[in-house]
Design goal:
Blueprint: E1 7-12, H1 20-36, E2 38-43, H2 45-52, H3 59-73, E3 80-84, H4 90-99, H5 104-108, H6 111-119, H7 128-131, H8 133-142, E4 148-151, H9 156-172, E5 182-185, H10 213-221, H11 242-250, H12 253-264, H13 270-296, H14 299-328
Parallel strand pairs: 1-2, 2-3, 4-5
Helix pairs in contact: 3-13, 4-8, 4-14, 8-9, 10-13, 11-13
Length: about 325
C-alpha cells in the first residue's frame, strides 16, 4: 500500500516510561511514518481507565513520562500532531453515538476480550467500559478520518471491528464521512527482558529508553544467557541466548559474526559478550537520554507543544463531529 500522505493514527496507554520493546515495536515505525504521512499520535489516557479505573493516580504522571520519551526519540511536533485523548471531548461524544449502533455480540466475540480478562484476573474487568473499549478505539481512529493504523497481528480484529462500525454508520445514515481504515501491518520484534522472557512492565524485566547508564549496565551484566553454558570454557549457542537477540538489533553484522564464533568456540565468555552489547546499546540510548534531560528542564515548552497539538486535533475532531451530528439528525436545535 502506498502510504504517501496517508492520514495515520496511533496511540499509547500511559502505563509508565517506555522500554526498548516500545522503541522498536512502535516508535521506530512512527518515526518513519511521520516523514511520509499526516500523523496523529495520542496518549490514550481514557483507555488506561478501562483496566486501571480503581488506581488512576499514576495516569497523569505516566502521561508526561511518555510525552518526554516521544520527543526524546525524535517524534517531531512540526511533522506530527501529538495530543492527549481526554483533552478532546469529541472522542467521548463519538464513542457515545457509535455505542448506540454497535451490536453487543460484535464486542463479545472480540478475541482479546476474554484473553485479557484471564490475563488480568487480579482486576475486575466485568465493566461496560472494558467491554466497550473497542468502540472507543474506533472513535479515536475515525474521528480523524484516518486511512491507516499501524498495528501488529494481534490488533487486526480491532481494526476489522472499526471497519464494521464504519460500514454500519455509513449505511444507516447514508453517509460517506468515514473512510474504512486500513491496518498498516507492522512486524513488532519481540525483545527479551533481562530474565529472558518477553520484555514487559508486567514482568518487571525491562530496560527503559531513558534509563540511566549505570542502571542499564547492571541489568545487562545480570541478564540471563544460554542456560546450558555453565562454565567459561563451555561452548555456547547464540541461537538460544537472549543477549544475542539484543545483539541482532544493536550490534553490527561484523560484531555478530565475531560473537557467534567466540561463543560457539568458548573463546569469549558471556561477560565479554555483554560488554560488547552494552557499548553498542549505549550508542543508541545516550543521545536519547541527553535529549530527555534537556526537555525535562523546560516543561513549560513541552506543555506549549502539547497545547498546540491538542488545538490541531480538536479542530479536526470538531469538523468531523459537525458532519456526524448533521448525518444523525443531532445538529444543535436552532430554535432554542
Amino acid at each position: 500500500m502506498n502510504t504517501k500522505r496517508m492520514r495515520v493514527l496511533s496511540g499509547m496507554r500511559p502505563t509508565g516510561k517506555l522500554h526498548l520493546g516500545n522503541l522498536h515495536g512502535a516508535l521506530d515505525n512512527w518515526l518513519k511514518l511521520q516523514e511520509e504521512c499526516e500523523c496523529f499520535f495520542f496518549i490514550a489516557d481514557w483507555h488506561a481507565l478501562t483496566t486501571d479505573y480503581a488506581t488512576p493516580e499514576k495516569i497523569r504522571e505516566n502521561t508526561w513520562d511518555i510525552i518526554l520519551d516521544w520527543l526524546s526519540v525524535g517524534l517531531d511536533p512540526e511533522k506530527s500532531t501529538l495530543f492527549i485523548q481526554s483533552e478532546i471531548q469529541e472522542h467521548a461524544e463519538l464513542y457515545l453515538l457509535l455505542g448506540m449502533i454497535t451490536p453487543v455480540p460484535w464486542l463479545e466475540r472480540n478475541p482479546t476480550y476474554k484473553e485479557q480478562q484471564q490475563q488480568l484476573s487480579n482486576k475486575d474487568l466485568s465493566t461496560y467500559g472494558f467491554l466497550g473499549y473497542p468502540v472507543l478505539q474506533a472513535a479515536d481512529i475515525i474521528i480523524y478520518r484516518a486511512n491507516g493504523v499501524p498495528v501488529g497481528k494481534d490488533q487486526l480484529p480491532h481494526i476489522e471491528l472499526t471497519r464494521e462500525i464504519v460500514r454500519r454508520f455509513n449505511h444507516l445514515y447514508r453517509s460517506d464521512i468515514f473512510p474504512e481504515p486500513q491496518a498498516l501491518l507492522t512486524e513488532f520484534p519481540i525483545l527479551p527482558g533481562i530474565d529472558g522472557k518477553k520484555m514487559s512492565k508486567s514482568y518487571n524485566n525491562c530496560i527503559y529508553i531513558t534509563e540511566p547508564g549505570d542502571s542499564v549496565r547492571k541489568k545487562i551484566m545480570t541478564m540471563v544467557t544460554d542456560t546450558q553454558r555453565k562454565r567459561r570454557s563451555d561452548p555456547g549457542n547464540p541461537d538460544v541466548c537472549p543477549v544475542f537477540d539484543l545483539h541482532k538489533i544493536y550490534s553490527s553484522e561484523e560484531n555478530r559474526g565475531e560473537i557467534t564464533d567466540g561463543c560457539t568456540t568458548a573463546s569469549i565468555g558471556c561477560v565479554d559478550c555483554k560488554k560488547i552489547l552494552l557499548e553498542n546499546l549505549n550508542k543508541v540510548l545516550e543521545p536519547i537520554r541527553e535529549k530527555r534531560k534537556l526537555y525535562e528542564k523546560n516543561m513549560d515548552n513541552i506543555k506549549s507543544i502539547m497545547q498546540e497539538g491538542i488545538k490541531r486535533a480538536r479542530k479536526e475532531a470538531s469538523k468531523t463531529m459537525e458532519m456526524v451530528r448533521e448525518a444523525m439528525g443531532m445538529a444543535p436545535f436552532a430554535d432554542l
